[in-house]
Design the sequence.
């Protein structure tokens, strides 16, 4: 791999930037690998990267039916934070946060991770009680957090309507300064390039059409480019996970929903942090390019169509304009949907299955992007050792039968 | 935006009047106390999530407030039929084009409401 550096930039400028190396190869599938990762999104690529780099498993394939950065990895609103309520979830997301903090250097790829802080607003007394509880829980887990009152929020975001006259007045917020945003497609590309440099084969436009299972043990996958064998298969297919599990005769407690997002025309810098409100239900940040990046809730019905309904978009923008009247005449440039696999307790599934050697990493629902490096790291450790990593263990699929849920839904002030 | 034919109001109305409530035809275990953890967990948390024809429970929240069922395709989002509680769907994964004359009459009803001549 040709390393990126300031000197490299100057050197390539002399040849008019025409001789940059391709970021990853386009290999022909081998017959056999040690590990196959199904799904070339952020989590899958991160899994492959850490498998090769930290756990010494170099003979790895990532099988992707489309192209890198074509799914949820590049459809989300790029928010990264770790202020989750419960210990299990906090450990997982904070593990991810520590990896984010060195990710650009580690990958030799600028993922534009910007720790500009995240505000989770409270609009009711109960919101504020929940925020205090969550911030206290965060601090006990060593995660940074502060409770701000309305004045504190106004000082951070002068353009927000924090007056008493708002329909849902802002009473305060939780503030996580280490949280922020990252450039999501750079995350996919950075992990892909770094994994490829470690010898991982990234097979794009290759669709897994079935699993090869014998005596309860997986030994490969069927694809549209022929069969590929491996004794360990990790399925990281987000919205399509239920369909993939069905191919192995497994049912997952997932529902796939459209989640929409939109960006505005580029504006001068006006918002230098991330603002989320669970109560009026919208979240917003401004990208380095200047466009406002806006998201909110899922469409309530099941869907795989990568699009949702206009009433949901309207509801989202109502929430944004409620918080930021200044944005009422901003024009929206683009709008899209991605398919998220939501879990009943709003926490992911990182688990073995009853098919030996077949693992699932799914159920991230509306908030998987922030977990990309951490999810990949603990999942890679689990695949390499054949035992779930201690951080991943509470997220077993068994919890839906034992009742040991990690119930983040509503409790974390998370915009779901 | 969906236009949904409420089988109780007998009219096509806009999606905003309705709320989706998840998978239809889920039977509550007759004797919950005697369920195994496996059975109870399945009942509470495990839902069909097909890529294709799906039977869903909806409520006409800003209308008659009654619950009813929709058969819908989860990729094309096409609504194939709506039917009342207690009735069975005509369009299923096994019979994606409908399995009876009832299917045709339900579709004709929906189409007529939409002002489409079939």
Sequence:
């Amino acid at each position: 791999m040709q390393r990126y550096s300031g000197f490299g930039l100057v050197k390539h400028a002399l040849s008019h930037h025409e001789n940059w190396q391709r970021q990853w190869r386009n290999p022909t599938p081998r017959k056999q690998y040690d590990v196959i990762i199904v799904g070339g999104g952020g989590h899958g690529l991160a899994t492959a990267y850490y498998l090769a780099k930290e756990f010494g498993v170099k003979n790895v394939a990532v099988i992707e039916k489309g192209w890198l950065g074509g799914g949820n990895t590049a459809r989300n609103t790029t928010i990264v934070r770790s202020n989750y309520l419960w210990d299990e979830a906090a450990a997982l997301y904070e593990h991810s946060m520590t990896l984010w903090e060195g990710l650009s250097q580690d990958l030799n790829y600028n993922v534009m991770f910007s720790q500009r802080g995240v505000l989770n607003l409270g609009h009711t007394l109960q919101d504020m009680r929940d925020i205090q509880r969550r911030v206290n829980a965060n601090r006990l887990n060593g995660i940074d957090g502060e409770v701000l009152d309305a004045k504190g929020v106004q000082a951070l975001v002068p353009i927000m309507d924090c007056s008493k006259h708002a329909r849902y007045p802002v009473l305060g917020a939780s503030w996580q300064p280490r949280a922020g945003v990252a450039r999501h497609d750079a995350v996919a590309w950075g992990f892909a390039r770094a994994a490829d440099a470690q010898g991982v084969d990234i097979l794009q436009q290759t669709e897994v059409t079935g699993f090869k299972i014998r005596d309860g043990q997986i030994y490969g996958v069927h694809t549209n480019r022929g069969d590929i064998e491996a004794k360990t298969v990790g399925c990281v297919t987000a919205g399509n996970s239920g369909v993939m599990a069905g191919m192995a005769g497994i049912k997952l407690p997932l529902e796939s929903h459209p989640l929409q997002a939109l960006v505005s025309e580029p504006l001068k810098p006006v918002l230098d942090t991330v603002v989320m409100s669970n109560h009026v239900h919208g979240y917003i940040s401004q990208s380095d390019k200047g466009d406002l990046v806006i998201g909110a809730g899922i469409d309530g019905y099941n869907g795989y169509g990568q699009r949702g309904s206009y009433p949901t978009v309207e509801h989202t923008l109502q929430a944004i304009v409620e918080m930021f009247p200044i944005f009422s005449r901003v024009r929206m440039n683009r709008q899209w949907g991605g398919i998220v696999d939501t879990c009943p307790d709003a926490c992911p599934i990182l688990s073995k299955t009853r098919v030996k050697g077949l693992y699932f990493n799914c159920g991230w629902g509306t908030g998987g992007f922030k977990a990309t490096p951490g999810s990949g790291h603990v999942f890679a450790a689990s695949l390499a050792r054949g035992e779930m990593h201690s951080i991943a263990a509470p997220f077993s699929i068994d919890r839906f039968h034992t009742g040991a849920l990690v119930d983040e839904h509503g409790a974390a002030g998370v915009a779901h | 935006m969906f236009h949904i034919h409420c089988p109780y109001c007998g009219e096509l109305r806009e999606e905003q009047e309705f709320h989706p409530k998840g998978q239809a035809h889920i039977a509550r275990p007759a004797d919950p106390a005697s369920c195994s953890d496996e059975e109870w967990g399945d009942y509470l948390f495990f839902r069909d999530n097909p890529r294709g024809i799906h039977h869903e429970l909806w409520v006409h929240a800003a209308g008659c407030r009654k619950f009813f069922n929709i058969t819908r395709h989860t990729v094309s989002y096409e609504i194939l039929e709506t039917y009342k509680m207690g009735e069975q769907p005509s369009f299923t994964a096994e019979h994606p084009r409908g399995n009876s004359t009832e299917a045709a009459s339900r579709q004709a009803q929906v189409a007529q409401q939409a002002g489409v001549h079939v």
Chain A touches chain B at residues 240, 242-243, 251-256, 300-305, 307, 309-311, 344, 400-403 (CB under 8 Å).
